[in-house]
């Protein structure tokens, strides 16, 4: 049994690329024994390079695969498939993100695994569910497009834009974690596993929150507004003398404080800007007045002054600045794992050096969930392809869940 709140949980991870691996990494950070099953060529993201880290590892792969073991199993080979089935029948959790029907062809679908392993929590991540959307490829960009996110992202009069990261995959991965933990909790009560289904499209629609609710209520879909908010003003990116900053005013008190800091207190009493509804109706005039005042000083001056006055404001950081900002707040956003004499990484072609590398730290973004008594633990760097293979890599059997209690259950 391992350490951590999930130290007694074994995960058979058949997923690849982002949504599934992100989910299993979050579980592994809290002690789950995640066994990453890879095809002989490895997870596709092993080859998504450059950029690479100091070991020659693709940073895309490295960002979502720490704390895991890697085994290579060719499901098209009888011996490899037998090992995969053995693993699935010894696991507490099985997770996969193949197109619907692929796992069934190998006898590794939920029904087949559950027949042998009734306590299994089986998580299936798809792009568009298992009905009419089965044939659609679940690529994040495609889901952002057909799921409505791109219609509300980008300049008002410009091209629809994707978000700058595969956000839908990340959302689906987080939903998978939540679903798995809910199913494990239910298994604690009943001894029975169940199927957890997460789709990228449903994850996105849920995440649209206020934009989706307004559409349902009014029948009118929202449109792109750049960095402006459909219901609040001023709530956008503004230009100071040297660079951009964000001002996010949520109520009249904050707007009056903004006007005072800008040296234009009369704005708070202007009929066009008295109350949020009026400010939304006259957002263009308001923007012009604010930027005229902001042009007098640097963004650093304004962010400091506005923050001291209780007005939400911040610099538009790049990613490096964002990490440094989190560090300045004491959030410890970076997890470091020492890699002693890291071997060359198979499958990276000319990007991988032939000799072992000196000790160094693998750095990745820390788990976002903070637990006071059983925090995340960063134990091992992302594994080399097949690093944990061999005859004794997995016990032949182990108990999975407590027997179901047949006694009546009262309120808990």
UniProtKB/TrEMBL annotation:
It holds the Pfam family CoA_transf_3. GO terms for molecular function: CoA-transferase activity. Residues 365-412 are annotated as: Disordered. It comes from the Bacteria. Signal peptide: none annotated. InterPro entries: CoA-transferase_III_domain (IPR050483), CoA-Trfase_fam_III (IPR003673), CoA-Trfase_III_dom3_sf (IPR044855), CoA-Trfase_III_dom_1_sf (IPR023606). The keyword Transferase applies. Keywords: Transferase. This is CoA transferase. It comes from Agromyces bauzanensis.
